[in-house]
Structure formats: structure tokens, C-alpha cells
Amino acid sequence: MENAKSASEKLAERKKRLHDLHKQRQEARTQNHQEVVAEDARKKLPSNWEARKRQAEWLLADDKARAEAEAAGKDYERMKLLDVSAVDAERIEKKKNAKIIPIWARDMAKYEKQKAELGEAFYGGPNTTLHMLTKDTPSAINNMVKDLDQQIERRKKYSRRRIYNDDADVDFINERNSKFNKKLDRFYGEHTAEIKQNLERGTAI
Description:
By secondary structure, this protein is mainly alpha-helical. 70% of the residues lie in helices and 0% in strands. The radius of gyration is 37 Å and the shape is flat.
């Protein structure tokens, strides 16, 4: 009787263990499926989603702190400065005071005149066509040409010269292809030398 009881107990333990394993496997499947769905959802999000999310969270926290400060009758901007170092405060102040003059502000008379002539079209829109409404002056065209010439000169100054061996065989079509061919030659050159020679002589089978 004791043997039969011990055998039944062992069977019950095995069944319980099997049930636990099934339960764990089901939980693992569910968890894996959730992770796959979450990963797929993350892939469909814009590339800058994390940055936008952090910015939104910061704005919400900032609005909440501002509302709490106003409710307590405190100056929120002054409270923020208490958490800013002297170096950062100086940098922020310099940035605020930096005088950035837009292109249109350099000749306000011309700006106001063009604004009056174009009316609503001055601000542009999806159906706005300007090529019949405006005419470039010779001085503006000369300035554009001068600027383009300066850009070309700057590119010449900073362009890197590619040095090639004039006596070497040309077996590439561009810089990228040349690097790729050199890499192939390092790994397979000794094995393909005979085939390459046969192809160049025209005697390859």
C-alpha cells in the first residue's frame, strides 16, 4: 500500500511539475509576443521620437512647476536660475543678447516696399507664384554670382586631392569601387591572380 501511495505521490508531483512547465512556457510565449509587438511599434515611430518624447515630458514638467510657483506667489524664472550654474547663466545671457540681423532687416526700405507691392503673396502659401510678381535687380544677380564664385573657391581650397598611380591598371569606376577592389585583392588576390591574367589575355576558359 505504501509503495502504491508513493508511486501515486510521485505521479502527482510529476503532473504538477509538468503543469508548472506548461504554465511557464505559456507565460514566456505571451511575454515574447508582447516584446515583438512593442518592438514593431517602436520601429514604426519616427526616428526622432525619443527626443520629441523627452521634450514633451520636459514641457509638461516645466508647465507644472510654473503653475505651482504661480500658485505659491513665487517668481518661476528666478526659481529656475537658482538651479543654473554661473557659467551656464552667462552663456544663456550672451545668447539672449546676441544681435542676429536677418537678411531682410539689412535693407528695411526695400523690405517694406516689396511687402507693399506683393501684398498677401509676400508671405507665400501653397498656391502662391512669385516668378511673375518679382524681378531680380542686376545688383542682386551680381551678388548671387559673387556668392557662388566664393563658394566654388572655398570648395577648391578644402577639396582633397586623390593621388593615383598613373602606371597602375585602372580596374575601378569610382573611389568607392577602388577601395572595394583593393579589399578583395587583399583577401583573394593570390587565389585569383591566374584567372585575372587569363581574362586580360583573353585566354580564359
